[in-house]
Amino acid sequence: MTDNENTAPGRQNWRARTAILTLGAFAVGTDGYVIVGLLPEINKTLHVSIAASGQLVSTFAVTYALLSPILATVTGRWPRRQVLVTALVLLGLGNAVTASVNNYGLVLGSRILAGCGAALFTASAVATAAHLATDQRRGSAIAMVTAGSTLALVLGAPLGTVIGKAWGWQAAIWFITAIAGVIAVAVAVLLPAIRLDLGVTLRQRLAPLTDRRVLRVLVVTLLAFVAIFLPFTYMSAVFAPATGGDQARLALLLMIFGIAATGGNLLAGSLADRYDARRVVIGATVGIAVVFLLMLPVRENFALVALMHALSGVVCFSVIGPQQHRIIAYAPQGGAPLVTSLNLSTAYLGNFASSVIGAVILSTTGSSAFVLPVAAVFAVAACLITWRSARPTDERGTEPAEEIGKPAAAAG
């Protein structure tokens, strides 16, 4: 970023520019979430079980988790605008292939390509938004980008499910492809040239993993997101007694969850700014466990299931923002983009693990109801580890948020 862009006048448009990144996060989030509502249609078209079709979610997630630091290293010297456009192009190409083939193996492969685009986009978007904002507004900038993912739950996934029901699941995937293309053009035209990362090596990117405090935060993120995505990925199976296999009802549950998740994300961000983020995570994970257990006896009542999904959305999306706050406190000098990237990768790893664990549960128990108590156990484990962790402190004596917008070349 140039000197002029670093001045206050140069940052006056940070909200408008961050909004573009929010829309990009919306496209990425929709791509990850919409498969959940399309699983029944995908099963029929590809002639696979619901456990097998669930691996389309896991393939996307594990690609993100494992390749995110590698792709970030390869593109480290690129301007952020170039990285973000490339990411959206990869996302669009992956989805174009997904929508064009009817072979399960090829569809799995295309999800890897889309996952590469998602991995490249999200962490870079978070760091770019934080750099665009003033020091006092970086928490809000991060929350804006994260809100794109919750907007995907509110609008993207339900709309994609409705499109899939009306015109086939491939039409929903083409819908995402079109969104990615439009946003790529917007990023190319409207985002300024920004350089945040001057040649950070893969070793430097992974260096925070040698800090036990960082590892504890990452373990909590992993366990919490296994808990969150276990019922979410297999929503169509877990709540089939309430939906009766009706995709319109499934889309409504996704929308209710997404609206509540948006409120939970914003509320958690505000609470993390005012209070100890550790306490917010403890409260959220306890809430996740309680809500999932309460879902068990009401699985056959759609009205009560909808109510539980509203509560679930609030507590589930009260985790990632505070976790970002916690892990930034342990970042090395200038290394906040590195640790936030690791945290997001770990969240996607939890998404991957949840789809695999869910597939095992469905294949071995014969009842999707077991998904809920297993998810509650993971949430409790995340809560206990957070409770036993010391409150984060910045040993350098500065506000951790100040580091997120700085170059990360010195990290490690």
From TrEMBL:
Residues 17-394 form the Major facilitator superfamily (MFS) profile domain. Pfam families: MFS_1. The keyword Transmembrane applies. One of its GO terms (cellular component) is plasma membrane. InterPro entries: MFS, MFS_dom, MFS_Efflux_Transporters, MFS_trans_sf. SUPFAM superfamilies: MFS general substrate transporter. The chain crosses the membrane at residues 20-40, 46-71, 83-106, 112-134, 141-159, 171-194, 214-236, 248-268, 280-296, 302-321, 368-387. It is a multi-pass membrane protein. Keywords: Cell membrane, Membrane, Transmembrane, Transmembrane helix. It is found in: Cell membrane. Its main location: membrane. This is MFS transporter. It comes from Solihabitans fulvus.
